[in-house]
TrEMBL record:
InterPro entries: NAD(P)-bd_dom (IPR016040), NAD(P)-bd_dom_sf (IPR036291)
Name used for this protein in its record: NAD(P)-binding domain-containing protein
A Pfam family matched in the record: NAD_binding_10
Species per Swiss-Prot/TrEMBL record: Clonostachys byssicola
Residue span, NAD(P)-binding domain: 7-142
SUPFAM superfamilies referenced in this protein's UniProt entry, alphabetically: NAD(P)-binding Rossmann-fold domains
Length: 224
């Protein structure tokens, strides 16, 4: 399978690239990135790094390069406090993600063979909330925006066509070099190590899932 990967300089996206390289089910990874990547990634035969400055636009020449891809693992986002303001967080999380999904649904999915479906895998977050009017006691901005993205993507999903959407919801992501204390603390809130999350995301890209929303506890069975 040829796959598109975003968020390449982040914790999750970089781990997804490493897993894509290691996984025999992935034949090639097209990495959309604003920044240059380490040579061990950019020089790998399984990887094509495509410089992409504006994630709100997907011109024809870019879509031509991505022709034949059957999945996208979207790892751009994070939590609201990581951004300078809510508007920026919403633009990066909602606008960029939905712009890509619409472009891939319109141009890449219909060009696949009759027995193939395009899978858009959005790395969301635990307790994402679709109801934008619901009052939340904690992490309200992050949960509302993640929920807005999920709903927008699921509205784009086409059961009768060739565009599927999956939204895994990790509760927290631990780096690969996390300490023993960090692992123990992570267990308290169901965190997953980044390499295991990457395996789960690649698994979903390759095989799909029974449900569009994949809760944190369900991810552990997808990285074995």
């Amino acid at each position: 399978m040829k796959v598109i990967i975003t968020g390449s300089t982040g914790l999750v996206g970089s781990a997804v690239i490493r897993e894509a390289i290691a996984n025999d089910g992935i034949t090639h990874a097209f990495v959309l990135s604003r920044k240059d990547l380490p040579k061990e990634i950019s020089d790998n035969a399984k990887v094509t790094v495509i410089p992409h400055a504006d994630f709100s636009k997907y011109p024809e020449d870019l879509l031509t390069q991505l022709a034949g891809c059957e999945a996208c693992i979207w790892a751009i986002g994070g939590r609201a406090p990581h951004f300078p303001d809510l508007d920026t967080f919403r633009k990066v999380s909602v606008d960029f993600t939905l712009a890509a999904a619409r472009a891939f649904k319109q141009r890449l999915a219909p060009a696949l063979a009759d027995n193939q479906r395009f899978r858009f895998v959005f790395c969301s977050g635990m307790l994402a909330e679709w109801d934008q009017q619901k009052s939340l006691l904690f992490m309200a901005d992050s949960r509302h925006v993640k929920g807005q993205v999920e709903k927008g993507l699921c509205d784009l999903a086409d059961k009768d066509g060739r565009f599927d959407v999956f939204c895994p919801r990790p509760s927290g992501v631990l780096p690969s070099n996390v300490s023993t204390l960090g692992k123990l603390t992570g267990k308290l809130y169901g965190a997953i190590q980044v390499q295991d999350l990457a395996k789960a995301l690649v698994y979903i890209a390759l095989n799909g899932a029974e449900k569009q929303i994949i809760e944190a506890g369900e991810l552990t069975s997808l990285h074995k």
